[in-house]
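Quality-control log, excerpt.
Job 1 of 2 completed; input and output follow.
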Amino acid sequence: MSDHASDLQHFSLAAEIIAQVCALPAVATQDWCDRAAGALRTVRPSAIVALTIASIGPRGEIAQPEATGVSGTDTAGRTLESDALHPEHSRSLDWFIDAPPGRPSAVRAARLVELPCAQSWSATASARRWARLGVTDISVGIAPMPGYSAERSLAIEFGLPPSEHPLAVWELSLLRAMLPQLVQRATLAFGLEPSNQMSRLTQREQQVLEHLALGKSVKQIATDLARSPHTVHDHVKSLHRKLNASSRGELIARALGHLAPNARLPRLAEVEGARVKTTMPSSTAVESERRLMSA
């Protein structure tokens, strides 16, 4: 393959991954990390990819677990559960990548076998879980994620079976380049405060939110989903609570990624006040408008 054709293949793959990352939900869902791991798995469809959002210490210790997900199948071809590699009780990634001198918040990625922690890795619980899945080569990456703690991070693990050759330098570089984009989308979805499973949308709530974004009424949604209006109304109330939204407009704005968590849409009176103040600052102009409106 020529250099030009190779470069084109690399750029096409990068564009495909970016498109998938941008298509991730703008709100935190139960399967968000699974879907994000699936986007990275585009690099090697035969891989198993794990993704973790947590407060992660300099030696991989997990102080504040938030969300984890997996994309891939086990040796029997069964789809893996979200917590297959990092159960809720996990307190460490069992690996770490030292930050470059003077750059503590740098994005890092490497093959695990090349890291100083590789010697102790084989004795860890994480290594045993990966081995049961038939994985023999793992690449890892970590990037800082804005929020409640300076140690809040998004970490990825990319496992390959013995039938696959390890990630090439360009593939590892591609994963490293994708991490900031993934962090940006994750921050939009999860916000800056600690999250947990109870704060993430269920599959049914996602469906209701998607229908609301299409402008449908509760009655229409109930008909489409074969549910009672009362049940749909309960889902809408749950959406307001989980997304901290005070109006239907805020729900839809969050669903579309136009409003960050804990942000508020300006009230109509505030918008109208700003319009009048900007376009007609004088009292004479305001009085003229009032007379026209009452005519």
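Job 2 of 2 completed; input and output follow.
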Amino acid sequence: MVKSAVYFLQAAITSPTLPISNFKAYRDLSFASFWIAVGPVFADVVPPMLGEILATSHGVVLDIGPGSGDQVFRFSSKDNITMIFGVEPGVNLHHALRENAKKAGLGEKYKVLSCGAEPDSLIPILKKEGLFSKDGSIGGGMFDEIVCIRVLCSVPKPNETVEVLYRCLKPGGRFVICEHVVNESSKEGNKAGRFFHKEGSKVGHLLQFFYTALGWEFFVGCHLLRDTTATLVNAAKSDHGWAEVNLELFDEWSVLPHVVGYCVKKL
């Protein structure tokens, strides 16, 4: 959080009128500088399970919030991938994202979309790309896989956003996540929409409240107390649940416990 605050200050010094004239642009510039600096470090500290999952990605993939593209190299089975659409609203990150896609050998198979994951931003762009059905609807979905790596913690209206992403997933398609979540000490498992059997940390949960009070959401841009696992599981309620759920909890003792894995949509 301290490092993020430094980049906020740096942006204010280099663009002194921006915080007043366009605060959103100021935050975007600060975040882009911060993420380009720390993205490679964060990319190294993910559970090995994520790389194993993304190595089996195939077909048409929607990559939500890839930032500067430091995780793109994990799509290692390039011959099995038809196309990846990278949804990234931070235009200041687009150059680095495209360069990392090239380094990963994806080249023309990776297309950057300048929009957010929220429906009112994403849907018009997907329509423009010709990904909707002929009648202009989502239809039965258009993506074989949707990938969210440390992004659902910050999207506006997470429930609505994930529900629409679910509709964009083809039957039999896979929804992959690597997200930090609220730290809870309950083991209630499936009742709360969680499919791992580990107990969280009360200290970690209290520290999440503490860092939130210090301004984590403002400086880092994400919510420590968001229950993303439940949001993902509940997105499939219209189909009476997912066909398969494979989620694991990592770093359950920490301020940033991560849920990693995937859910498969019913045929």
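Post-run check on job 2. Residues 46-264 form a domain with the Rossmann fold fold (CATH 3.40.50.150).
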